[in-house]
Design a protein that fits this description.
The chain has eleven helices and four strands. The chain has helices spanning about 10-20, 35-45, 65-75, 85-95, 100-110, 115-120, 125-145, 150-175, 185-200, 215-230, 230-245, and strands at about 1-5, 25-30, 55, 60. Helix content is about 60%, strand content about 5%. It folds into two domains: about 1-80, Glutaredoxin, CATH 3.40.30.10; about 85-245. It is α+β, with helices and mostly antiparallel strands. α4 (about 85-95) packs parallel to α9 (about 185-200). The two termini are about 20 Å apart. Bound molecules: glutathione.
C-alpha cells in the first residue's frame, strides 16, 4: 500500500496510527502543500484534493475515515469500529476538532514567527521538494491563510469549538473508563488524540512537530495549558501507552 500525504497532517497521523497498530506495511509518499494536489487529484481523477489518500492495488481511497473503514473491511481490523459509537465519535472529532486545532495553532505559530519552510521540510519529503521550500514558503503560507481561514477572529471561534470538545471528552472520561468508548481502543480514540495533537504536541507523533520550546513563550504557554486539561492528559497517555505499541492481532 502507498499513503499519499502531507506528512505533518493530523488526519494523516490518524491513518498512520491505525496502519502501525494493524502491522500493515506501506510506503509513505509525502509532498509539500501545493504539489500534493497534483498527485491526489491525479489519483482520484479530480475528485479529491486533500491528503491522506491510500492507494491499495487498484483501489484509491481518499479521506482518513474511509481509509480506516477500508482497513476494517479488507484487513479485518475490527477493533477500530468494535464499539457501537466509535464511528459517530470519530466523525464528530473530524468535524469539531480537526479543522479547529489546526487553524488555532497556525494562528499562534504564525504570530510567533513560525518558519513554514521548516514545518514542511519533513524527512520523508523528496529532497528536490525540500530544496524548493525556501522559495515557495511565502506562497504556501498565503494558501494556508486563504484555504484554512487563518485569521484572529476565526482562530478564536475555533478555540471555543475545540475547547467544548475537550470538555465533552473530559465528561466522558469522568467515570474512569480508559478509552472513549469504554474498555477498548477504537477509531474514536485515534481520531481524538491525532486531531488534538496540534495543540498538545505529544511525543511519538508520526512526523516532526514544532518543539514547544521553540514555539515562542505565548504559544508554549498555550500548549502547556491544554496539556494540563483532562483531555490533554488523555491525549498524552494515549501517545505514551498506545501510539508505538507493537502491533499484534486484534
Ligand atoms: N476529511 C479529510 C480531511 C483531510 C485534510 O483536511 N487534509 C489536509 C491536511 S491536514 C490537506 O491535505 N489539505 C490540503 C488540501 O485540502 O488540498 C480526511 O479525514 O482525510
Amino acid at each position: 500500500m502507498k499513503l499519499v500525504t502531507i506528512s505533518i497532517s493530523h488526519y494523516v497521523e490518524k491513518v498512520k496510527w491505525a496502519l502501525h497498530r494493524a502491522a500493515l506495511s506501506y510506503t509513505e509518499e509525502s509532498h509539500i502543500p501545493g504539489l500534493h494536489a497534483l498527485i491526489t487529484l491525479w489519483h482520484t481523477q479530480g475528485r479529491h484534493r486533500a491528503t491522506p489518500v491510500l492507494i491499495d492495488g487498484d483501489q484509491v481511497i481518499p479521506d482518513s475515515t474511509a481509509i480506516l473503514a477500508h482497513l476494517t473491511t479488507k484487513y479485518g481490523q475490527k477493533w477500530l469500529y468494535a464499539p457501537a459509537d466509535a464511528l459517530e465519535l470519530e466523525e464528530r472529532f473530524d468535524r469539531n476538532i480537526g479543522p479547529h486545532t489546526r487553524r488555532f495553532i497556525y494562528q499562534q505559530l504564525f504570530d510567533s514567527g513560525l518558519s513554514v519552510a521548516d514545518i514542511f521540510a519533513q524527512d520523508v519529503v523528496p529532497a528536490w521538494q525540500k530544496a524548493l521550500l525556501p522559495l515557495v514558503a511565502p506562497v504556501i503560507k498565503e494558501g494556508m491563510i486563504r484555504d484554512m481561514a487563518i485569521h484572529p477572529l476565526a482562530a478564536e471561534n475555533s478555540r471555543i469549538t475545540f475547547e467544548k470538545e475537550f470538555e465533552f471528552v473530559a465528561d466522558r472520561l469522568r467515570d474512569g473508563r480508559p478509552y472513549l468508548c469504554g474498555d477498548q481502543l477504537s477509531a474514536a480514540d485515534l481520531a481524538f488524540a491525532a486531531l488534538s495533537a496540534p495543540v498538545i504536541l505529544p511525543k511519538g507523533y508520526g512526523a516532526r512537530l514544532p518543539d514547544p520550546d521553540d514555539a515562542g513563550p505565548e504559544a508554549k504557554a498555550v500548549i502547556e495549558k491544554y496539556r494540563a486539561t483532562p483531555a490533554g492528559q488523555f491525549v498524552l497517555r494515549l501517545y505514551r501507552e498506545e501510539r508505538q505499541k507493537p502491533a499484534k492481532n486484534y
